[in-house]
Design goal:
Length: about 170
């Protein structure tokens, strides 16, 4: 993966590597140290070189640390019982927070926390990005596919006998 200087999510030029990790991210050196130990210096030199590149396994390792360090805690704040769900459902929810879909849908979060999984899965797909991705000729059909898989993971909880208590908020 080459170092990239166009990050469409930011709407401006920004140096990124791998799966969109900002080179200026203050946590990148920590993640590199955790991933690569003695090879951390070499990795960081390649990352900071505009002509540099990293391997796909390196990109995956950094992305995994990013997700576990940043997005899993964010998901746990939204879904306090996250750790009690099956691993595939946890992964789908974390993935969705990474993309901004779950964190951008308070109604879906409330339905999940209330144990209304079928309704939550349906509400999750009431999303302008999903709708646009479903249009014929969309440049981003993968967004729809990913969101459908995430909704299916949530829906898989419907009809199960949940031992999880509903989350009670002060609202």
């Amino acid at each position: 993966f080459p170092v990239t200087i166009a990050d469409p999510k930011l709407g401006k030029k920004a140096m990124t590597i791998g799966y969109g990790t900002l080179i200026k991210n203050p946590d990148l050196p920590k993640w590199a140290e955790q991933c690569f130990g003695d090879q951390c210096g070499d990795f960081m030199r390649r990352v900071k070189d505009p002509a540099g590149s990293i391997t796909e396994p390196e990109a995956r390792q950094i992305a995994t640390h990013s997700v576990m360090d940043v997005y899993k805690p964010r998901t746990e704040k939204l879904i306090p019982n996250l750790s009690q769900y099956p691993a595939d459902v946890q992964g789908a929810m974390i993935s969705s927070v990474y993309r901004g879909s779950l964190s951008g849908s308070p109604k879906t979060v409330a339905l999940i926390n209330a144990g209304k999984y079928e309704d939550a899965a349906n509400e999750y797909l009431v999303n302008s990005e999903y709708t646009a991705a479903k249009l014929p000729g969309s440049k981003f059909p993968g967004v729809a596919t990913r969101m459908e898989k995430e909704a299916a993971a949530i829906r898989s909880l419907a009809g199960t006998t949940s031992t999880l208590p509903p989350i009670v908020t002060g609202k």
